[in-house]
Amino acid sequence: MNEKNIYIIRCGETALKGQNKPYFERMLADRIKKILKKFPGIEVKRHEGLIFVRAEKATDEKEILKETGKVFGIASISPAVEVESDMEKIGTAAVSYMNDLIKKNGIRTFKVEAKRADKSFPVKSPDIAKKIGAAVLKGCGVLGVDVHDPDVHLFVDLRHDKTYIYQQKIKGFGGLPLGTNGRGMILLSGGIDSPVAAWMMAKRGMQIEAVHFHSYPYTSQRAQEKVAELASILAIYCSRFKLHMINLLPIQEKIVQNCPEEETTVLLRRFMMRIAEKVAEAAGCGMLITGESLGQVASQTADAIIVTDEAVQMPVMRPLIAMDKVDIMDIAKEIETYEVSIKPYEDCCTVFLPKHPVTRPKIERIKRSEERLCADELIEKALGSEEICEIYPK
Ligand code: ATP
Ligand code: MG
Question: Which ligand sits nearest to residue 243's alpha carbon?
């Protein structure tokens, strides 16, 4: 028989989705299948609210865990051993499982945690725990039981046809399966925040697409490549997507020539939002996403955000709005965008940066400044500069 390694995957909030539960589970299983298809002989099956992955013995466990660890919607995953639901067979399997662990990790104490999903099974959970505990004590001479602080919790999960033995519940990211919650357009800079914002929305099931503004040739080709690199890290989690590159330089020049210096950033941000809205509409995205965080910089004060928001009709998601920079940085490090984000390339916002940007812009004044600009024409022209790159997981 071609025996395989088994992984039990527990669905996160998907488990709460009532009548839509099968849909969410199917989406999650499909995503897991897609991400694991590079390994030969992978099987992904849904069963009793769980997802079971079977992989060839030769496939490295660490690789499987690393890859599934990037899938949104997973609460936890356990590499497990499958055995027929028969007390003697469970006992034998538990002994061999523990002997392997002793060899690998030199453990000394354990505790059995038994669960009986199949209530028709004649032995009750506490008795299963006692009997399997006794079998392990006998079969693994060096071990002792510690019910308070054991080296290993030996889980015995008795289901209808099979029983699963495992010792770890490795936490996943949680969230919801990708593609279960609409499409959003992230305004992606080369900074730390916007990749995290995109990741957070994708974690809630949103399919993302991205728009980046540059000021070529004031900003370099390298700066654009950096954004594409960030996007390709995001694609590991969010699947492949399109990155729209737009040249903002003509608009910046027009603003600098015609408007008060301190309004430059706010005016530019309103243009960014309007252009992003048009790109989003054309791409079938119903929302914009930004990496703004309240008060982080002059353009993110409450007043500035109100003025920025006023430029568009589309809902703007700001998942980082109430987060501190250090906490955003922690996520950036965890998802491995941080090292790329801190590479020192210029952003279009730093070209023509005003010395004293307004922190409390007034919408009437900003609109008066805009009247000098023929906004629609500028926006059309900027959209004409659009280049689209297909981004694949790094
Ligand atoms: P980040 O680390 O995301 O660059 P930041 O603190 O530098 O954020 P800002 O430059 O004010 O903040 O930008 C706020 C948000 O506006 C960004 O998170 C991003 O969503 C969007 N944004 C800024 N610059 C660009 C750009 N060049 N292209 C696309 N979106 C941008
Ligand atoms: Mg930025």
Answer: 1
